[in-house]
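tl;dr need the bound structure. longer version: we got a ligand (nicotinamide-adenine-dinucleotide) that a collaborator sent over and nobodys looked at where it sits. i said id run it. heres the input, straight from their email, havent touched it
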Amino acid sequence: MKIGIVGYKGRMGKEIKDLFEEKNHEFVWGYDKDGEYFQEPPQIIIDFSLPEVFEKTEDYVKKFKVPLIIGTTGLRDEQIEALKALAKDVPVVQSYNFSIGIQLFLKMVDFLKDKIDGWDIEIVETHHRFKKDKPSGTAKMIKESLDKDVPISSLRLGNVAGDHVLYMANLGEVLSISHRALSRRAFAEGVLKSAEFVTNKKNGYFTFTDVI
Ligand code: NAD
């Protein structure tokens, strides 16, 4: 497929471009801080940038009338609503984490959440020093799955791709679930799966949970 990437010069943008090209897909369009790269119209747009770029992405998706895969974190509620409106015309896959491991993590949380009433519960997330938002979108997803207002601690250290730990403790024991992304490749693989998933869809709002 012919892909377009918003944020194509960024860490995730480059990883996604490399993976898709390895799989014989073609990078034909991009948008970044210094403007547009145009070779030909894309058949799909992938956005890994910043929330302030969202309205540009929205305009380009409408212009090219193509599916959107969006992994940008820190989106505002009204931007999520705008994505749902966009999904009436094109397929949209939105997730704050495109790794398989975090999907399994969320399933474990769903299994545990009714069994840990009265326990101390805390989330700790660690990311590289360049990450702009805090707490991470994934930590927010874990908190949402718990249906509880639990504290989140955020560490910004070196070049860590993404660590999440959920601690649960009573007076006699500590239980934890942890996930470590060893590189950004794990997220790019999920984006590729999502791109393949939307090829036969006309429209609709999906999360990565729907994809796997
Ligand atoms: P990055 O800073 O390396 O890349 C962001 C890109 O956006 C850069 O190329 C930057 O130049 C571009 N950009 C910034 N402002 C812009 C503007 N005004 N107009 C156009 N382009 C602009 O960041 P990253 O590590 O690649 O992460 C990008 C996003 O993806 C972040 O929101 C991050 O949290 C998110 N992320 C999501 C997942 C996931 O699985 N959903 C995984 C990793 C990262």
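gonna send this back to them w/ a short note. Residues 7, 9-13, 31-33, 48-50, 52-53, 71-73, 95-98, 133, 187 surround nicotinamide-adenine-dinucleotide (CB under 6 Å).
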